[in-house]
Amino acid sequence: MYIIKTTFVLLLFVFKTIGIMAQGNICFKPMFGKEKLVLSKQYFISNSNNNIQIDVFKFYISNVEFYNNDQLLYKEKNSYHLIDAEDSTSFILPINFLSKTWFNLIKFNIGIDSITNYGGAMGGDLDPTKGMYWTWQNGYINFKLEGKSNLIGANNNEFTFHLGGYQNTFSTLQTLQFPVQYLSGIQINIAIDKWINEIDLSKQNHIMSPSKEAVILSNKLPAIFSISK
Amino acid sequence: MKFKTFVISFIIVFLFAFVSADKSLFTKPQNWPKPSYNFKKNPLTTSKILLGRVLFYDPILSRNNTVSCANCHSQYTAFTHIDHALSHGIDDRIGTRNSPALMNLAWHNTFMWDGAINHIDMQALAPISHHDEMDENIKHVVEKLQTSKIYPLLFYNAFNDSLITGEKTLKAISQFMLTLVSANSKYDKVKRNQDSFTVQEEKGYELFKQNCASCHTEPLFTNMQFQNNGLPFDSLLNDVGRKRITQNDKDFLKFKVPTLRNIEFSNPYMHDGRFKRIADVLKHYTNGIHNTKNLAIQLQKPILLTSNQKVDLTAFLLTLTDKEFLFNPKFGFPKEVLLNK
Predict the structure, then answer these.
(1) C-alpha–C-alpha distance, residues B275 and B215, integer Å
(2) Domains of chain A: which residue ranges?
(3) Which of B42, B168, B245 lies nearest to residue A137, judging by beta carbons?
(4) Span A191-200, mean pLDDT?
(5) Cβ-defined contact of B125 to A120 (cutoff 8 Å)
(6) Cα(B216)–Cα(B262) distance, rounded to whole angstroms?
(7) What φ, ψ does residue A161 adopt, rounded to 5°?
(8) β-bridge mates for residue A81, sequence order
(9) Which residues of chain A neighbour B118 with C-beta distances below 8 Å?
(10) pLDDT level of residue B170 (50, 70, 90 thresholds)
């Protein structure tokens, strides 16, 4: 009897200290309109006759954090994820940590923060061979969108948006937070068409360095991320 | 063929017989400030330094395997490009600047004439990717290295893993560059009481301290700042300097203050190599300052030097020559690896 009681108390103690195991994943889903994004497929821009195709879509997610209201429960270590439309396995970020309680809020950055940009050579998703790094002026490219549209006359109808920049007034890093109901998965939709609609492609179609324009366009990114309910 | 591969492997393995992280690989010279490089994140080892040195001298980093780092950074000229005002790279394409001399880089937080690069690890990416320099990209460099005869083994020896990545490649190159410490000039020996200045050098040193040291600060002989040193603007090159990076008008025509160490061998001078001789440089500072916007405060008041004083000052500047650095075989072409390739 005594042994059972002790074991019970001990188990209760262990359970209380260790808490619960949060497991599952965050899944990003790039969309165009109501459809899942397919690279190099022809779409129409907001019900007009103008067409568009996306050939490259990649961006960084970093500093993923899990909260219960204001209380930080878990901060992912080495939290850098390159999401690349070319590779659907990159859409999924696993969740796997021990927590005292359930989380009901997640926070993350779109892009790479300034400290990391000053940190020298790094590997994994941050390796400069991933093609998300500027070399003439060093720094990570936070967000890349390339494609074609008949709205653009020059350059074979091509557009190139490479958004990045980490210094003071040219900082393009975005922080997002979402209240979540944790089940086993969280799906975050990315409405690329919504971002395209904010741009006059005929006038603005090439950004490839830190600039005021890159900041303005980056500020429009959080609005295209939404939790799928 | 097989025998040749065996011999190369043997040589490489032999070279690594003494591998291990070693504090003697980098020593802070007496009375120097603490280096700003974080060695904990990339601890120096003999094998990594050798790998970096091989990469530094190997044209494999360029698009058509013709141009190495050493093409524009030759040891005997303090790791700069002698005889060319503007350095030329692949296919003899000419850039817009004179390649900077490389030494004592562990103390720097900004690189290039305009500070475009914030970390030495990332520095090599700039010349590798530049259209007029190596015109290559790091992803392709890594692919070439992985399929080469010598590199998988060199990387294995350095990182215990023959899988080559951009991170490892860059860290190895920066290890070699970090070892390029020049601190054994006559000036240094005088400071350590191992030698003494001549009367003329001593006079020159006093003139240096009065007129030059506020920007070319001892012991590194640079204050690491970006300054407009009163050069007339070259509208052909149209080089706006640091402003290209910050997009701030305050940085128009500002360039990083270069070190004066080994100045005897690092000609031509200035970001665009416009001056061939030390005498031309001194003439600029006494008679040639253009009072353009943003002129350095230190140059607002004219520098007055008689021709005798210029001779004395030059005599002092020549005491900054460090032959042990310029001719140290440790920094030279790694023929034991690259000639057998």
Answers:
(1) 19
(2) 23-227
(3) B245
(4) 95
(5) no
(6) 13
(7) -115, 110
(8) A61
(9) 117-118, 138-139
(10) very high
Q: B91 pLDDT band (50/70/90 cuts)?
A: confident
Structure tokens at B306: 């008689």
- pLDDT tens digits for B192-230? 999 999 999 999 999 999 999 999 999 999 999 999 999
Nearest to B116 among A119, A138, A211 (CB): A138
Question: What's the pLDDT at B292?
Answer: 84
Is residue A208 over pLDDT 60?
yes
The answer to whether the Cβ–Cβ distance between B121 and A120 falls below 8 Å is yes
**Beta-ladder partners of A93:** A26
Predicted confidence (pLDDT) per residue in A38-72, tens digit:
999 999 998 788 999 999 999 999 999 999 999 99
- Contact status of A184 with chain B (Cβ, < 8 Å): no
Q: Report the distance separating Cα A129 and Cα B8, nearest Å.
A: 28
Task: Calculate how close chain B gets to A40, using CA atoms only, in Å.
Answer: 24
Report residue B12 as tokens.
């490489």
Q: Do B129 and A135 touch (CB under 8 A)?
A: yes
Domains of chain B: 2-21+36-181 (1.10.760.10), 186-321 (1.10.760.10)
How far B51 CA lies from chain A's nearest CA (Å)?
16
A121 close contact with B: CB closer than 8 A: yes
Instruction: Give the CA diameter of chain B.
Output: 69
Beta-carbon neighbour count of residue B13 at 10 Å?
11
What is the distance between the alpha carbons of residues B259 and B222, in angstroms, rounded to a whole number?
Answer: 5
The shortest CB-CB distance from B130 to any of A126, A131, A136 is to: A136
Cβ-count burial of B101 within 10 angstroms (0-12 exposed, 13-18 middle, 19+ buried)? buried
Q: How far is A22 from chain B (nearest CA, A)?
A: 32
Instruction: Report angle CA A15, A18, A24 to the nearest 5 degrees.
Output: 105
pLDDT at position A48 = 83
Query: What does the pLDDT average to over B252-273?
Result: 96
Query: A123, B170: Cβ pair inside 8 Å?
Result: no
Find the CB nearest A127 among B130, B166, B247: B166
Q: Check A120 against B42: CB less than 8 A apart.
A: yes
Nearest alpha-carbon partner for B130 in A207, A155, A138, A127: A138
Residue A226: exposure state from Cβ atoms within 10 A (0-12, 13-18, ≥19):
middle
- Look at B139 and A136 and tell me if their CB atoms are within 8 Å: no
Of A122, A129, A167, the CB nearest to B138: A129
Largest CA distance in chain A: 84
CB B266 within 8 A of CB B80: yes
Separation between Cα atoms, residue B324 and residue B278, nearest integer Å: 22
- Alpha-carbon distance of A208 to B137, in angstroms, equals 17
What are B335's two structure tokens? Answer: 């023929």
Helix (H, G, I), strand (E, B) or coil at A147: strand
Q: Is A213 on the interface with B (CB under 8 A)?
A: no
CB within 8 A of A3, min separation 6: which ones?
none
- This prediction has a pTM of 0.90
